């Protein structure tokens, strides 16, 4: 009898591990898709301006940006980049860090980086996110409205320069209404 329990536990553990890996893979893919959507949207809207939108890797490959975005760690003269998904650049200078988050879980880590970057580098820090909503049976905005903000919006307002929410059904589970596609600052 104990051997059977051990086998069941091992099999159950493997299933949970595989499920967790599958979920992580799906979340990463969704995040990449969201980032690509945001970049294409911004490039289209900024087409006739001299503002360029760069992926983090593109920005890192530009020597003139490396020193402007590195933050000192205080350990062995090392520095790190903050939570950069994209960077808006005008005349060779960074004007905004654009952080794309597709889930509420992923949004909390950037508050530290946003505050640190704003204080040390004086670069605007923007968050672009779908409104995934809350609630099982009835969809309710997790961001609330500007006049009636949710606790998530209240928290984000304290740390970032702008919050842009887009309700694209592909990224917003259980959303009941479809709105015009536009990034609206909230």
Describe this structure in words.
The chain is an alpha/beta fold. The protein has one domain: Trna Endonuclease, Chain: A, domain 1. 42% of the residues lie in helices and 20% in strands. A hairpin with a 6-residue loop joins strand 2 (70-72) and strand 3. The longest helix is centred in the first third of the chain and has 44 residues, at 2-45. The termini are far apart.
Strand order of the largest sheet: 1-4-5-6-7-8
Q: Total domains, how many? A: 1
Give the N-to-C terminal Cα separation: 59 Å
The proportion of residues forming helix, as a percent range, comes to 40-55%
**What fold name goes in the CATH topology slot?**
Trna Endonuclease, Chain: A, domain 1
- Low-confidence parts, pLDDT < 50 over ≥5 residues? 175-186
How many DSSP-defined strands? 8
Largest sheet: 6 strands, mixed
What is the chain-wise order of helices and strands?
Answer: HEHHEEEEHHEHEE
Computed CA radius of gyration, to the nearest angstrom: 20 Å
Per DSSP, the total helix count is 6
pLDDT average, as an integer?
75
Helix/strand structural class: alpha/beta
The shape, in one word, is globular
- Strand content is 15-25%
What would you say the CATH architecture is?
3-Layer(aba) Sandwich
CATH class: Alpha Beta
């Amino acid at each position: 009898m104990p051997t059977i329990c051990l086998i069941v536990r091992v099999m159950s553990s493997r299933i949970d591990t595989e499920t967790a890996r599958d979920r992580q893979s799906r979340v990463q893919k969704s995040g990449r898709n969201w980032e690509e959507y945001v970049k294409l949207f911004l490039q289209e809207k900024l087409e006739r301006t001299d503002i360029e939108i760069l992926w983090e890797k593109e920005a890192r490959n530009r020597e003139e940006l490396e020193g402007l975005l590195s933050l000192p760690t205080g350990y062995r003269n090392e520095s790190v980049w903050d939570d950069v998904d994209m960077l808006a650049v005008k005349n060779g200078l960074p004007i905004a860090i654009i952080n794309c988050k597709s889930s509420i879980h992923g949004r909390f880590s950037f508050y530290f980086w946003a505050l640190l970057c704003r204080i040390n580098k004086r670069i605007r820090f923007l968050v672009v996110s779908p409104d995934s909503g809350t609630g099982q049976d009835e969809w309710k905005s997790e961001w609330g409205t500007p006049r009636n903000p949710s606790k998530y919006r209240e928290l984000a307002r304290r740390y970032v320069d702008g919050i842009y929410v887009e309700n694209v059904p592909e990224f917003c589970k259980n959303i009941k209404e479809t709105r015009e596609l536009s990034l609206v600052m909230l």
